[in-house]
Amino acid sequence: MEFASSSSSSSSLSFLKSEPQFRYDVFINFWGEDIGRKLVSHLHSVLLQAKVNTLIKEENLQGMELEEHMRAIAASKIAIIVFSKSYTESTCCLLQLQKIIECQETFGQIVLPIFYEIDPLDLRDQKDDCGKALEEAAHKIYSGEQLEHALLMWSRALTKAAGISGWDVRDLRHDAELVEQIVGRVQTLLGYADLPITEFPVGLDSQVEKLIRCIENHSTRVCMIGIWGMGGSGKTTIAKAIYNRIYRLFIGKSFFENIRQVWNRVFRRRVPLQEKLLYDVLKSKVEVESVGMGRTMIQNVLSRKKLLIVLDDVNEFDQLENICGNREWFGQGTVIIITTRNVDVLNRLKVDYVYKMDDMNENESLELFSWHAFREAKPRKDFNELARNIVAYCGGLPLALNVLGYFLYKKRVEECESVLETLKRIPMDEVQEILRISFDGLWNDTEKDIFLDLCCFFIGKERGYVTEILNGCRLHADIGISVLIERGLIKVKKNNKLAMHPLLRDMGREIIRQSSPEEPGKRSRLWFQDNVIDVLKENSGTEATQGLSLKLHSTNRGSFKAHAFKEMKRLRLLQLDHVHLTGDYGYFSKELIWICWQGFRSKYIPKNFPMENVIAIDLKHSHLQLIWKTPQDLKWLKFLNLSHSKFLIETPDFSGLPSLEKLILKDCPSLCEVHESIGDLRNLLLINLKDCTSLSNLPKEVYKLKSLRTFILSGCLKIDILEEDIAQIKSLITLVAESTAVKQVPFSIVISKSIGYISLRGFEGLSTSIFPSIIRSWMSPTLNPQSFVSPFCMDMENNNWRDLAPLHSSLANLRSILVQGDTEFQLSNEVKTILVEYGVNFTESRISKHHLRFSLIGVGSYNEFLNTLSNSVSEGLSSSESCDVSLPGDNYPYWLANVGEGHSVCFNVPQDCDMKGMALCVVYLSTPEIVATECLTSVLVVNYTKCTLHMHRHGRVISFNDEDWHGIMSNLGSGDKVEIFVTFGHGLVVKNTALYLICGESNDLEKEPVE
User: Fold this and answer.
1) Fewer CB atoms < 10 Å away: N or C end of the chain?
2) Is Repeat among this UniProt entry's keywords (predicted)?
3) Are residues 973 and 857 part of one domain?
């Protein structure tokens, strides 16, 4: 039977429609005018009983034309040829034989010859009666050159078939024995046996469908798909489910399970893997003498075969390169699926698509756990709250839900509660063993140290911040963090924050705990509150301790002695939130790199606190009045955060902080003075003085900073930004100065070539000035600026407008800018009014459909979709008989389509996906002389929810770069209402604008403020 018809799949599996498309398992070729007919009839009957979809000449091909015979042969995986003494008398058999040999040579069709009372040598040599019969058969239908060609082709086909290993009836006692052997061989070659998968496949079908569509979308000559995720996430289960769904559609198949384990067991030898692949496809043992010979054999034997190959749990590229390192080794339509915890191996292999495993959502997690724990889809009422707590603990990891659900089957509520509390301290061994494989597979101790530091101290911290700190610990975190991401051990979430699955975090912490289960002071890192308190009270810390974190509540009055740190001479990471410490701070380690001490209670930092190697100091919510009494020489310090320090009066002398990059003094209401030495900081990138309400002025030296990129002054009610001062900061990208004493918009910032984000809300003249000026300068760059540019500010006393010609000229050259507005109405009204007024046509022109054209603008990760989209739009335009346009619609999961009439398209940012990129399709009318690719192009992204207008301008219709994409995405959040406008110069009429959002797996789109 045909697999596609029996499957429950709703997918068309169109990626398998390239030649060959198998509809039959076996085709039997024979001549039925002799005693071989009885054998064939018996064989056919037994094959059908064995559920082998078989096509036979006499019964299945009656009424078919010759071409249909040929198509039937090409749609069969196996061809059985029954040679008899009169075989060469049949022109039909000979034509079919010629097609069979052709199929064997082109796509590797399996040929099984049966020599029924005829010597294979007679067929090979075609002498005597056999040769005469062959000539007579050819004369029946051919003459002249065709006759000679047919004899040549048939003779060649007979010779080749006679050389294939098969069955010689003369060697067997009776036909029944022969039929039994043939059917057994056919069943072995077909190998129709589903792989066992999970008993409770919750959420599996939708993921399998999604991956099959991914395979379909990447239907290249040989399609390679990677499934990437952490241990226990269900990669193998999905791979098996896909295999079961589609394996009948391939001529050969191989499923390598647990390659990592096999690799280690055979001492990292590649040959056994090559031998297994060849055996699985050929169904006969093959000895491979060397890796090089194995590669040659794979290429020679498999290059014409359409195969399904699944390589499960790959962890090194070496495991792949000698099995599937070259697509040319396999036949057209081959699909190779690779599961791995290490995405780097997929990138090196250059797979067509990487499918990242998601954690199960709460509902699916609860259902999966319930099936294992209660044998039903929902928890019992008395278990409802507890079940949800257990599901939350498992964090959507299928392995943990399976193991824990099975373990708690038939247990009482009290027992389950006890188990959960225990697991929070000591994780379950069966889950830990699977997860630890990824940790043990890290290349060196440096990567392991980075992972353990992240587990205990840096989850939720910004990647760049953590990288600098760990680099200071000589851990080479630039590379190390990338490796951990590739291995699926950590993730990078919104605003570049590091995240980790809770069970991986617990696994890392358990590794540390097991190093000294009974004596916490001998562990390398301390994070569990009870253990830390005991160590500090008992002075049991040792030189083994490299990191310590104690986070108490702000109302806690816990007090400890500094002497407790005396023996922790290798301490490099210290976090003491709301901890009161008495005694000599000189006991702290000189190796300290990171100090995070929220709620620091002293009025100033003691002079003997050893900070000479510190890279980051975070003393938010401190009681500091002065940071230190005398200037300090901290040459490695890069981050200084004193936010929410209510009593801080002045900043320190910065002359001893040459490496400082980020100065964060947010919400320090008593701060009155910024030290003039701030101008000496040649590496300073960020100053955040938000809500420093007592600060009335800044030293002139601030404006001389050559590296400053972000300047935040919002809420500094007494500060005004002077034109001549701010103009000096040539590197400034972001200026946020809301609710300040600013009386006029600084023109020098607006026209700066570096600026990318300006927010000056609270200035009354902004909403009626910046938007019109920038947009108008782009829409009509050749007009006289004095004739239309509204002023940014006005000298109210003299009632004189400022000369804005230089401003207009600079705006016309601006590439990208983001401006904050006040209300949705103001944004919508301003943009549409100006677009109508300056160059955008909203009415349809009477231009022939032959002048209907389109342009595609790609942003972010769009390449693999743009060609498909371009072809689809081209077909739609060429088939249109009028100017009506039918653009491609929704094609989830690859893109989400939104189509608008005219020059704009509206959409809501999706809630449940991470946008990886977007493609804009603009259909327009033009004259033959002018096309959009020759015109100035403007793209305006209006976020009505956040009241921002992001404007991009290009000299030609080209794809945006990654920097543009990140800029756009940083101002789009889940659920935001957005409209995108696309405009061309030269008066081109835009008919339709379509937006295709290219989605990923996460929904972390929100922009977070700088702390």
Assistant:
1) N
2) yes
3) yes
